[in-house]
Amino acid sequence: MTTTVLFFSEKITPRLRYTVATIIGNLSGLDFIFTQDKSAFLSADLPKINYSKMQICGKELRISPHPLLFDNSIQPYLIESENDFFINPNNNNLVTELFNFDVFARIFFLVSRYEEYNCPTTLLDAYQRFSSTLSVASKLGFLQQPIVNQYIIQLSKQLKNIFPNLKTQFPTYKFQPTFDIDMAWTYKNKGILRNSGGFLQDILSGRFNSIRNRANILRGINNDPYYTFEYIKKLHQSHDLKPVVFWLLGDLAKYDKNIDWTVPEFQTLIQSFAKDFRVGIHPSYRSNQSVSILKMEVERLENILSSIPPLAVRGQNTEGEQKTFPSRQHFLKLRFPDTYRRLIDVGIREDWTMGYADETGFRASIATPFPWFDLEKNEETPLIIHPFQAMDVTLNNYLRLTPEAALERLQSLMDTTKSVGGTFTTLWHNDNLAEMDAWKGWRAVYEKLLNT
């Protein structure tokens, strides 16, 4: 048995190496050796992939190449139908007819988020985000499928059919819950000015029940409904799950209405989570325009956690090297390549923003973490992207699903992820587990999901 595959191409580029060695290699357990020598390819006694327009030998898997992986620029590809999506109708593959398209080009296009680089700002949503409806995955109807994982499984099966001694190993399924903490308390720890303004708005609006409720919470008579943290801890510990928890620490602004990071009770809360779970930074809306603001917020989290042993806060690898904080952008505000470059600049090596606000599914068409490829620089980076498939706000506010329909959607996504050995990642908020107003019944959705 062997895990080595000889890969022939007339040109070896960073895009090709990234797609084949990194993405396909990591998800199949295969090791790829690249060659541009036809004679060496012909004589080698190894499983072979021929990425060229002409057959070299009788026993090979040949894929006819599209120019995408040989290019250094970013072209404005318009993909509105399957025929636009790197189809090679005259592939002339003597061994298999499975792929009548360039599967490597498709994988690279989807995982690199190629289409997001050329998107005009006029098409972006109110928060200047790339919406799911703009994506090829949505237009061609595979947004709810991790089609990259599926392609790699199909490709591996074809290789094994031709080369039975080939050994593959795919990832095993995982469930990874995550939380974004935008507002730890409804009324508590907001300070005199903010609560006074809240009282005034309630008075002017005639919301007398809200006035009474706010007063009782501030006096300690009632519990603050957003404070669901003990419930979150016990629930996940009972299922032996460790959520990653992202904390918003930016200054108060229009889209950043969190608790002041200097509040001692807030810092104590973050520290308590860091002892049991992974914690990360939730970069503010404003930080998406400024590396200095992002750096400041990361330093705030470092300051808060300075009294916690590094092993509990960040984790260590076997050599004892410290891992950096994970991050997820507030409002899922992600712009290529600027957002990811800023994260790299401040030392962040994991980002969990890869998902849509307006729809569930697989934004990069992949169900497993992967390194980000900077298209403008044409190079693989050290930043690992962790895609998520569903957010609570998407299900309730955007899609307006009932709790029952939301659970059905979540279970379908989970089953689909399991089928490819992916990581099913959910995004939830502490306040949406409070059983208040439009979120009544949603705590049961989350509990049933964890029991699935």
pLDDT < 50 runs, ≥5 residues: 93-97, 311-322
Order of helices and strands: EHEHEEHHHHEHHHEHEHHEHEEEEHHEH
- Global geometry: elongated
The order of strands across the largest sheet is: 7-6-5-13-12
Strand content: 5-15%
Structural class designation: alpha/beta
- The end-to-end distance, rounded to whole angstroms, is 37 Å
How much is the average pLDDT?
A: 90
Written overview of the protein:
By secondary structure, the protein is α/β, with parallel strands linked by helices. Helix content is 36%, strand content 13%. It has 16 helices and 13 strands. The strands form three sheets. The chain has a five-stranded parallel sheet with strand order 7-6-5-13-12. The protein has a four-stranded parallel sheet with strand order 2-1-3-4. The protein has a four-stranded mixed sheet with strand order 8-9-11-10. A hairpin with a 4-residue loop joins strand 10 and strand 11. Helix 7 runs antiparallel to helix 8. The longest helix has 17 residues. It is elongated and about 80 Å long.
Structure keywords:
4-stranded parallel beta sheet, 16 helices, alpha/beta, 452 residues
Give a short overview:
With 452 residues, the protein is α/β, with parallel strands linked by helices. Helix content is 36%, strand content 13%. A five-stranded parallel beta sheet has the order 7-6-5-13-12. Strands 2-1-3-4 form a four-stranded parallel beta sheet.
